[in-house]
Known about the structure:
Elements: E1 8-11, H1 19-27, E2 31-34, E3 38-42, H2 46-53, E4 61-64, H3 67-73, E5 85-87, H4 90-98, H5 113-117, E6 129-135, H6 141-148, E7 152-163, H7 168-179, E8 185-187, H8 191-200, H9 203-210, E9 214-216, H10 219-227, E10 234-236, H11 242-254
Parallel strand pairs: 1-2, 1-8, 4-5, 4-6, 6-7, 8-9, 9-10
Antiparallel strand pairs: 3-7
Helix pairs in contact: 1-11, 3-4
Amino acid sequence: MNALAGIGVLVTRPQLQAGNLCRLIEAEGGTAIRFPALDIRPRADRAATRAAVGPVDRYQLIVFVSANAVRYGADMLGQKRDLRIAAIGNATAQALNAAGHRVALLPTDGSDTEAFLKLQEIQHLDRQRVLIVRGTGGRELMGETLAQRGAEVVYAEVYERLRADPGPQVLAELERLWAQGGVHVYTATSTDLLENLIDILTPAGKELLQSTPMLTGARRVAEAEARLGIRSPVILAEGPGDAALVEALVAWRSKPA
């Protein structure tokens, strides 16, 4: 298919998370330009984290917030297969299934914290212990809300997000391509990614950013754009999943000029 023929898409996701989105863009005839704005690394003190969490079977619910949380935190589950596990989004659920764990709770009307918190099964959590497996400095909405519903919340922060360092040559090549019209859309699927991209770009790159549409599946990222002083037009997908992002991109591309 050629719905995205002639369209260059700057994919800013971390290296290990960008592959499927790039493949879908290229399947529609577009050009996926990989430029990770964020590095994901396991925390060096994971052994201390596991010790602080204690035995996982003491928790009535274990929530994995992302595929990265599974990648760096699923080993805490060991060989236990009778745990009640929740996933935020299909990618997280697929990662858990691939690791041999069954997902008991998964939002069906979204792939974010807000959708998860609507699930009927977690509206009342009196004295239940809930373990949230996430990265350092994640959003507090989930933990705060579950605590308000009576849960005893414990965090296992198993990875950290760091601003990527592409190096001056890679950055110069990207900005040269962009200035020549090779980048038509950039992705920002989280506020962290958007903030890091802004920090990485030179002043000339920031000017290019202002006139380039931003593709995102999270309304909070679109709202953060104005706060960060960016005026990019927004292509807002139905959700953060790869298929939804490409569907929104194709719909944008098909609109009359």
